[in-house]
Amino acid sequence: MSADIPHTEEWFKTWFDTAYYHLLYRHRDENEAAFFIHRLIDVLDLRAGDKVMDLACGRGRHSITLHDAGFEVLGLDLSKNSIRAARTFARPGLRFEQWDMRNVYPEKGFACVFNLFTSFGYFDSMEDNLKVLRAIHSVLAQEGKLVLDYLNPDALGKIDGGTTAVDVEEVQFRTSKYLENDRVIKEIEVKDGDETHQFKESVQLIDLSTFQKLFREAGLQITQTFGDYDLGAFVPESSPRIILIAEQMR
Is residue 186 within 8 Å of residue 25, measured between CB atoms? Predict the structure, then answer.
């Protein structure tokens, strides 16, 4: 993991394609994620065998959960290395492809598109967010649904830029998080042996009213809104998540 990291203006093209990203976040709660997905399935009225898309699928952990629940799953992600890893789990009814979510995917007829765990809002402009939503609109079946799960900016609390240090498998990570220009920024310094690398994460602060506007412009109507992974009611000032279920406008 000591190879040089190429520079790119779009931070997600670099950071998500490194082994360091997966190393830093390897302790994410898989049980919570699986519970959340099964709760969603309960409210989506999907049928066994339905074709669904996991948009920004990473290495495919949620795609596998969806496939095990009985769906035909396509996982898409921009990261070449993540898709390479995900394809080791491919089987009939579970496939993966490298893809930029801003582009319209040529296959249509998806019963649901899942975009989970703040896999949105990476871009510099709202226009790119709108491109993503329009691309999703174009692949949905007539009764198809979108599930979009995002952080709730109104409940973030204080982010003071303090530094956190952690060692994982002899790799040292130092991270700091702060707010700047309506974005949450996380700077990540990685020390791997004699080498030091710098990365960042930068996510737009998008509140519910802005999502509503974006969805309308993309031809989508929000039908349900939840505020946490238990699918509790959304309370703007306290809910940790904005979880939206939408379908094509009629």
Answer: no
Q: Any idea where the domains of the chain sit in the sequence?
A: 11-151+206-248, 162-202
CA distance 70 to 126: 35
Tens of pLDDT, residues 44-85: 999 999 999 999 999 999 999 999 999 999 999 999 999 999
- Checking 208-217 for CB contacts under 8 A at 24+ apart, the result is 208/234, 208/236, 208/242, 210/126, 211/148, 211/150, 211/242, 211/244, 214/126, 214/129, 214/130, 214/133, 215/133, 215/244, 215/246, 216/249, 217/130, 217/133
The candidate with the shortest Cα–Cα distance to 17, out of 121, 98, 87, 74, is 98
What topology does CATH give the domain 11-151+206-248? Rossmann fold (3.40.50)
161-186 pLDDT per residue, tens = 789 999 999 999 999 999 999 999 99
Cβ pair 41, 111 in contact under 8 A:
no
* Token pair listed for 42: 């309960």
